[in-house]
Amino acid sequence: MVYEKEDPSFAANQLDAATSGRGGMAPFIGICIIAAAFGVADGHVQGGMTGDLSLMCPEFIQSFFAGLAASGVITSALRLVTKAAFENSRDGLRKGARMLETTMDKYTFAPVDLYLIYLLP
C-alpha cells in the first residue's frame, strides 16, 4: 500500500507489534494519542463534508449520513466476526483487533492504490 504508513490505525498495529502486546503505561499513552489523532481527523473531515454538502442539495447530506451509518454497521459486524473467530485462542481479542484493523486498512487504501495505478501516468 502506498499511504498506509500515515494511517493512525496502522500505527496502532505497529505499536502493538513493537511492544509484543505486553502493555504498560507508554503503549497505553501511545494508543490514546493515536486514537485522539484519528478522532480529530475524522471530525474535521466529516464537518468539512457536511459543510460542503449543505451548500449543494439536501439529498446529498442525507446520502452522506446514510453512508456513515452503513459504514458503522459494517465495521461493527466485522468486529463481531473477528471476536468470534478468535474467541478460544490465546490473546484472541488482541489478534482479532489486529486482523480487523489490517482488513479495514486494506479496504480504506484500495481506492487510493487503484487511482495511483490506473490514472496517474
From TrEMBL:
Transmembrane segments: 24-41, 61-81
GO molecular function per UniProt: nucleoside transmembrane transporter activity
Claim: Transmembrane is one of the keywords in the record: yes
Keywords: Membrane, Transmembrane, Transmembrane helix, Transport
Topology of this chain in the membrane: Multi-pass membrane protein
Residues forming coiled coils: none
Source superkingdom: Eukaryota
InterPro entries assigned: Eqnu_transpt
Keyword hit for Membrane: yes
Localisation per UniProt entry: Membrane
Record-level GO cellular component terms: plasma membrane
PANTHER family hit by this protein: EQUILIBRATIVE NUCLEOSIDE TRANSPORTER, OS07G0557200 PROTEIN
Family membership: Belongs to the SLC29A/ENT transporter (TC 2.A.57) family.
Name the record gives this protein: Uncharacterized protein
